[in-house]
Amino acid sequence: MAPPAPFCAILVAAGRSSRMGSDKLWVDLWGRPTWRWSLDALLATPGLERVVLVVAADAVTRFSDALAPDRSGRCLVAVGGDSRADSVIAGIWALTGVGYNDETLVLVHDAARPAVLPELISSVAEAAAGGEVAVVPVVGVVDSLKRVRGGRVVAPVERAEVVAAQTPQAARLGDLRASIEEAHAWGRPITDDAGALAAAGVPVHVVPGDPTNHKLTEPSDLVAMRALLAARATGEPHGTAEVAAGGRCGVGFDAHRLVDGLPMRIGGVSFPDEPRGPQGHSDGDAPLHALIDALLGAAHLGDVGSIFPSDETPAGVDSGELVRQAVGRLAEHGWRPTSADLAVAVARPAIAPRRAEIAERIAALLGIGPDAVSIKGTTTDGLGITAADGIAAWAIAVVERTR
Description:
19 strands, Spore Coat Polysaccharide Biosynthesis Protein SpsA, Chain A, CATH 3.30.1330.50, five-stranded mixed beta sheet, single chain, globular, alpha/beta, eight-stranded mixed beta sheet
């Protein structure tokens, strides 16, 4: 087998985390800061020669001191700019300064995507080295898209030609530098490297991305990210790292405001001692709503709103019944659920004392064993939509073909 083609990487870690409210790159994720997960994945990928860690000017010492001694030789630390594009340019010049030329294959990755896997990095690098001029990993969009103007929906957006771009994105060093400089010269906005390259006339090809390669943006994103990384680290059978051949993985999210006097239901289980419950058209069971979205998304069958619109669904309906109907819809299209992993963010009640009960209830709704369902509870430390007055849930579901 031929050795992998050599490449370099630029890890962009110079952002200020304005929407997160705190420095997301230094959030502890099971013993490692966010940026270290991305760096470690890059360094574990066959073919990587050098990686430039681009950081804010006042953070150089902090990042440099946090590099493991045995890895500092393959890592350069450079000072980034005010924008992501400026930081990429800084990384390019750092590579040029140590002898890399315009033909060097370079992958650019956002440090705020800690769940990136070496397999995805290799896929992008191999595609670019195999003759594609530039490469971007993408995932399909499962939600219905609308064009909005003045706060009103004016037209639908066809999903067939719409994808969500991820990182790392690959290009030759010279093409990447020239495209960013051209965008600056013409005053074109730069949202990512693929956009700059395409605008400059460089062909940009796509490869399948990873649905779990999420970017940390809001405080609530940390809950799902911790759950995902924990499942990978422990190798639990209900984790999302392993999907059988031909299977699919979907992600769902839901959130509700908590209101006095309403019943509290979590994962199909009632908490009668709670004084507040979720406000919604149905019973407001956020974990089950997230699970429905994850199931439908995995099978590419829409979302909970398109399958159960409010004007056609009875008010106060048991969300467990909606899960059963969603499973039935999957069966009609030749799919069945095999596992589910849920994380619930709520100040109270505590999930742990009734975790087994909730898992058994969800397993019964899905028609799978309780050992294939995971449910975790957490809080957001007083931040975000679930500070004290809300409940949010994330779900990852894996489905497989029945025919």
